[in-house]
Amino acid sequence: MKEKEKFSLFLFGSQACAPCKALKEKITIWSGTHPQVFTGYVSIENNISLAAQENILGAPAVLAFVEGKEAIRKIGYFSLEEVFAALDRCILYSD
Predict the structure, then answer these.
(1) Measuring CA to CA, which residue among 1, 21, 13, 18 is closest to residue 68?
(2) Strand 7-13 vs strand 37-43: parallel, antiparallel, or unpaired?
(3) pTM, whole model, 2 decimals?
(4) Which of 27, 47, 80, 95 would suit a FRET pair with 37, their CA atoms being 20 to 30 Å apart?
(5) Domain Thioredoxin: where (predicted)?
(6) Contacts of 85 (CB under 8 A, 6+ apart)
(7) In this prediction, what percent of the chain has a pLDDT beyond 70?
């Protein structure tokens, strides 16, 4: 999907990760006002090879892509609001 969509945001998470659940909920709410951004959740337990391919070794992790190229990578403790703001800037400047 990262190559098909102009903007995409992926959360790599784990069932045992409480912050992952909170981030997933916030991303779902945010995506409701950002239909131009494809959002997806990747369970690292069920998609070990995909996580490894993206060099994700822990959760939570957020990767954002603009036109198929990685634009944002946050792993561990980070501000999701900063991620949203950076993506908003990317969207604004792409118009």
Answers:
(1) 1
(2) parallel
(3) 0.92
(4) 47
(5) 4-87
(6) none
(7) 96
DSSP per residue, 21-87: HHHHHHHHHHHTT-TTEEEEEEETTT-HHHHHHTT--SSSEEEEEETTEEEEEEESS--HHHHHHHH
Segment 8-34 shows an average pLDDT of 95
State yes or no: pLDDT of 1 exceeds 80: no
Q: Which residues pair with 11 in a beta bridge?
A: 41, 62
pLDDT of residue 94: 81
Does domain 7-93 fall under CATH 3.40.50.300? My reply is no
Phi/psi at 41 (5° precision): -115, 135
Distances in Å between the alpha carbon of 15 and those of 31, 67, 94? 21, 29, 35
Distance in angstroms between the alpha carbons of the first and the last residue of the chain: 21
